[in-house]
Amino acid sequence: MSDAARDLATLLDLDPARIETTVLRHSGPGPRYTSYPTAPVWTEAYGPDAFRRDLGGLAAGAEISLYVHVPFCRSLCHFCACNRIITQRPEAPADWLDTIEREIALLRTALAGAPRVVQHHWGGGTPTHLEPAQIRRLFRALDDAFPVTPDAEVSIEVDPRVTSEAHIEALRTCGFGRLSMGVQDFDPRVQAAIHRVQSVASTAALVERARASGFASIGFDLIYGLPFQTIASMERTLDDVIAIAPDRIALYGYAHVTWVAKQQRGFERHDLPTPPDRLRIQLATIRKLLAAGYEPVGMDHFARPEDELAQAARSRRLRRNFMGYTTRPGLDLLALGPSAISQLETAFAQSHRDLAQWERAIHGGEFATLRGHALTADDRRRQWVIAELLCHGGVSAHAFRSRFDADFDACFPTECAALEPLAEQGLVEFESDGGLRITALGHLAMRPVAMVFDAYLPAHQATDQPVFSQTV
Fold first, then answer.
1. How far, CA to CA in Å, does 150 sit from each of 199, 208, 419?
2. What is the pLDDT of residue 465?
C-alpha cells in the first residue's frame, strides 16, 4: 500500500463529524490548478508573435507532449463545461480536419528542429466523433510532422455511446494504447438529469473490445455531486465500475459553473447534493475504491497498483497539466485545435475558443493564439510548490532549495503564516526541515491549501465576478 493509501485509510477512521466540520469550512470558489498562473490571469498581451518566439526556444530533439483538441460532440451533456460544438453535420469535422493539418504544418515550421513526442493525447469534445478514416488521416499528419517515440504514451478520450468496433480498430492501427472513457454515473435518474444515457452493458462491451484489441490501459471518468446523486446510487455505480475493472479512475467533483455552461442552470439547486452530502458521497467513493485495491493518485485520481500512474505517484514522478495527471515530468506541451492550451517552460498560450476565429487565423498563416502568460521567476517557484502539493501531498524544503537556490520559508513567510490555522485544524503539518506536508484530513482540502500560494488569487477574490468552481 502506498503512503497516500495509508493516509486515506487513516482518514476514513476519523470521526465523520470532525471531517465535515473541518473540511466544509474551506468550501468556496477556487482553482483546480491544472495550471499556475490560472487561465483568468492570462491576457491578450501575449499573442501569436510571443508564442512563435517562445516556440523558437525549444531545443531541437527535445522531448515533448502533444495534445489535439477535437471539439465536436453529437449531443450536449448538461454537466459539461468543456469547449465543444454540438453538431451532426459531417462537413464540420471535415473542415476542421483541413484546418488542423495547416496548424500542424505551422507549428512544425516554428520549431528549430523535430521534437521527440513521448506523450500524445487527443481530447475534446469527443475525438471518436471523427470517422475511423478521419482518425487515420489526422494521426498520419501528426506523426509525419511530430513522430512518436517507440515507447511513447499514446492516449485518447472516447465516448462509449459513439465509439464503434471500427473506431477501436483504427485507433489500434494508429498506435493508441490507452483509452479514457467518460462514465460519470450509471444511475438512470442521474443520467437522465445530465442528458447522458449510457448503459453498463455497452460500456463493458467497449472495454472488452478494447482489451481484446491490445489496449494496455483503460481509464474511467466519474463525477460526484451530480443532480439526484446519493451515497446509495453512487455505490451502485461503483459496483458496476469495479466489476468492469478499469486500470485508472478519475474522480472529479461536479463543477457548477453556470456562467460558463448555461445549460447547467437546469439543475435546480434542490436537485444537487448539499455540500455535506456531496462530501459524504466523495468519502463513500474513496472508501469503496480503496477496498477494491485502487491507490490514490494526487487529489482526484485512482489507479491499480501496477498501473504506470500509481507507480509514478510512488516514485514522485507525477506532473499535473491540462490533461490531468501525467507520468513524465518536465515536458513542454504543444497543443492544437480551438481552445487548446500549450504549456511551455516559459509560458502558457491558448488558442481562440471560437471555431471560426481559430480557422481564420490558421488559414491566414498565423497562430490562433488568443491569450497567454509569460512566466516570471516568482511564477515558476509558486508553480512548482503548487504542483508538489497536488501531485505529492507536500513540499520538501531540501528539494526547493536544490531547485531554486533559496529557502522555502524565506521565500514564502506570509504563506507559511497563513498555513498556521490550517495546521491547527489538522490539514497540514510543518516538517522539521522547514518543508510542508498535507495530512490525511488535508487530502480533502488540497485546493484550499494550494490557494495559499496563489499570488493572483486575492485580486479575483476582491471582485464579485464568478470565476472558479467550489473547492469542496
1. 36, 25, 45
2. 84
